[in-house]
Design brief:
11 helices; T2SS_GspF_dom; 319 residues; Type II secretion system F family protein; single chain
Length: 319
């Protein structure tokens, strides 16, 4: 009873902590909107080359507030609520339940204190995993649409339309989620922010380098001139090849993912077969405290191995 009460309190504290962080982030959206409107005519100061041209290397080592660091760790971005397929409160509830269950069962193996700490860690990583899954799906959907968006801008510019109308055509004709993001870019331009700075904000939201390339193209063209349609056409070809290469890498990684799934499921398939052949051995595992500890240790090693294999596959894909 004491263990259950302790783990329940730990789960509630985890839920309250993460809920408070996200609530603070959402309450700051209105304040940031007022600041944007008030400072619409201000020019953002950014690091540039000595010649005054925008640099393709973005400054990423800036200091972030503590709240922003926590949200970044959780992979929750309050500026893009449309990426959340699962409501944030449901994500927190699922993570807290996973933490309570994991802490309850790990308490048998390591004790109440260690079980509560492990449950807290599992809750945080479960919340982070759900937010990261939604964010990655959202960014992948945008990444696939970028070549079509640049191609649409090229056709609009070659037809004689100005750059603003080309951006507006992307916001009007493409499907979501890129349509909403370019609509936000148009909103930033409407309140006085330069187009390249608005695209850099889009890059900060999605962390896609293609938008930084696009911002540099528009920044250079606004200062030096040149054939914008040809430059965008070359950029569209490069981005199209990057999309194709990413799809090819995912296809090649599918075999490794299948092998990881087989390795993950093989011990449990063997245990199921053993329960049908010799139920006596499996019954001892679940009725004996030592067997229960061995089951928990095996489950922990299986999850850890799956995470390591997944990290290796992701690392190989990014390289």
């Amino acid at each position: 009873m004491d263990r259950t009460l302790l783990l329940g309190v730990a789960g509630l504290l985890t839920f309250a902590l993460v809920t408070g962080v996200i609530t603070l982030a959402k309450s700051g959206q209105a304040r940031r909107l007022k600041e944007r409107v008030a400072n619409a005519s201000a020019i953002e100061v950014r690091t540039t080359h000595a010649a005054g041209l925008p640099s393709i290397r973005l400054q990423t080592g800036r200091q972030r507030p503590f709240l922003e660091r926590i949200l970044r760790f959780l992979r929750f971005n309050p500026d893009t609520p449309q990426e959340q397929v699962i409501p944030w409160w449901a994500t927190l509830l699922i993570g807290s339940l996973i933490g309570v269950i994991a802490g309850y069962y790990m308490g048998f193996l390591l004790g109440r204190g260690a079980g509560a700490l492990i449950g807290l860690g599992m809750a945080l990583f479960a919340v982070r995993g759900l937010f990261a899954w939604q964010h990655n799906n959202y960014v992948d959907a945008i990444f696939v649409q970028i070549p079509d968006a640049i191609g649409l801008m090229v056709r609009a510019i070659r037809a004689g339309l100005p750059v603003g109308e080309a951006i507006r055509s992307v916001a009007a004709e493409l499907a979501n989620p890129l349509r909403d993001e370019f609509a936000r870019v148009l909103g930033d331009v409407a309140i006085g922010r330069p187009l390249d700075q608005a695209l850099l904000r889009l890059h900060a939201r999605t962390e896609l380098p293609e938008f930084s390339f696009l911002a540099v193209v528009f920044g250079l063209q606004s200062q030096t001139g040149g054939n914008l349609a040809e430059t965008l056409d070359n950029l569209a070809d490069i981005v199209r090849k990057r999309v194709a290469m990413t799809k090819r890498a995912k296809a090649l990684a599918a075999e490794a993912r299948m092998q990881a799934g087989i390795l993950m499921a093989l011990p449990y398939v063997a245990a199921l077969a053993m329960s049908q052949i010799q139920p006596f051995y499996i019954d001892n595992f679940f009725r004996n405290p030592s067997g229960q500890r061995l089951v928990l240790i095996g489950l922990g090693f299986s999850v850890f191995g799956w995470l390591v294999i997944r990290w290796m596959i992701k690392k190989a894909g990014t390289d």
